[in-house]
Amino acid sequence: MDLQDPILRGKYPAKDHCAKVATYLRSKHSIGTDSILYLEGQKTRLLEDNDDQRRSFFYLSGCALPDCYLTYHISSSTLTLFIPPLDPDSVIWSGLPLLPQDALKEYDIDVCLTTSDLPSHLSQFTTQNPKPTIYLKDEPSNPDLTSTIADLPIDASVLHSAIDECRVTKDAYEIALLRHANAISTRAHTAVLRALPTAKNEQDLEATFIASCISSGAKNQAYHGIFGSGENAATLHYQHNDQPLSGRKNILVDAGAEWSCYCSDVTRTMPLSGKFDEQSRAIYGIVEEMQQAAFSLLKAGVMWEDLHLRAHEVAIAGLLKLGILRNGTAEELLKERISVAFFPHGLGHYLGLDTHDTGGKADYADKDTMFRYLRIRGGVPEGSV
């Protein structure tokens, strides 16, 4: 089944993202138009290390290759990607790498050079443009670059936050990537549900989920999945995923595939017997009511704290009805933050290149336990996910 949106047949809109970040920098920090944005991609690492592309680099390039660099000249809107040069010795081990002419066809860039061209490229640019400011996200690791820009104005204080803010709102291409990642995850969760009658251990279901994702083309998971049966599900970030299922009622599956560096995050609770018992169904129903109450309030500009508060109000009403909470009115229980014992985490988070995507402005020092672990604070802008 083809899950892809037709928009994904085109190039990832890297230049639009560069322009978005440049516009943000001009509006918030009054940067000069002859400035350059410079980012480095992830370095090649050993198997035991995370080899995922640096998310900010991907956001401005659409390139997932390791050992790359990019520059974006603001006044000319020129995006240049630097890829590793051809190493004849490595071809026998890894095959032919992507060549510059191929990169120009694949990515939304203007120029593609090799990484060995980076110092001369910047030297030529600085000769033509007197004292341009180089905006860095991180300190450069390329020693040749460090010497090349040693006498230039360098600013490493604003680009990181600018990219984080711009990543909050998503364009149509990004939304299509997120939908595709979630479609793959939906199929994987369904595969887990179908595997319940024969599964013996949590790891059986984790294997089913991952196998389904890989068969759909998603080789990477957005995060380490949680497959917690029985009381294990009460540990928010349960990691073991290796306990027997015998004698347990339910399993919580919190897992999501990654597609082209974009993440999904789906959590479902499933009855191991195929049907919830009366107690489990009652709690499940409260959670459904909390979700629907939040959905009904969700719109551009809504305060995330208001959604979170409403979810707690619904939880308290449901737990009072079941008799789990007693000796107090709903208002009294809310004031005393009793529901935090059942709902200690935040209502949700932004989703994008990271599972817990950037720009949420969390305040983990908040003295109010109800809001301390919210990953989003304040108004939710239109176009955010």
Nutshell version of this structure?
The chain has helices at residues 14-29, 55-61, 88-94, 100-106, 118-128, 143-148, 159-166, 172-195, 202-215, 278-297, 304-322, 330-335, and strands spanning 36-40, 69-73, 78-83, 111-114, 134-136, 154-155, 220-221, 226-229, 250-255, 257-259, 262-263, 266-271.
Q: How is this structure best described in words?
A:
- The protein is α/β, with parallel strands linked by helices.
- It contains twelve helices and twelve strands.
- It has helices at residues 14-29, 55-61, 88-94, 100-106, 118-128, 143-148, 159-166, 172-195, 202-215, 278-297, 304-322, 330-335; strands at 36-40, 69-73, 78-83, 111-114, 134-136, 154-155, 220-221, 226-229, 250-255, 257-259, 262-263, 266-271.
- Helix 1 packs across helix 2, helix 1 (14-29) crosses helix 7 and helix 8 crosses helix 9 (202-215).
- The longest helix has 24 residues, at 172-195.
- The chain starts with 13 loop residues before the first helix and ends in a 50-residue tail after the last helix.
